[in-house]
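May I ask for an example protein's residues together with how it folds?

___
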Amino acid sequence: MSDNFGCCPLCGGEKQLGTTTFAVDLKFGVVVVREIPAFVCTKCGNAWIDDLVAAKLESIVADARRKQAVVEVTQWQQAAA
């Protein structure tokens, strides 16, 4: 059974399960979340995340915004717990 999750719309490569890093500049600070589960293109390296992961990332960013964190770096496993 293949772990292929479709073709990359950017380069035509295969998307497979992997991880990525998400970073956002909030103007007053930066939030970085590492090792996020994603579908990653084996050819160009672009990544796509599903809706549940995106919703959790929005929550992490909102929390950092409330705390006015200048720099917040976390691993997905810690942040998603």
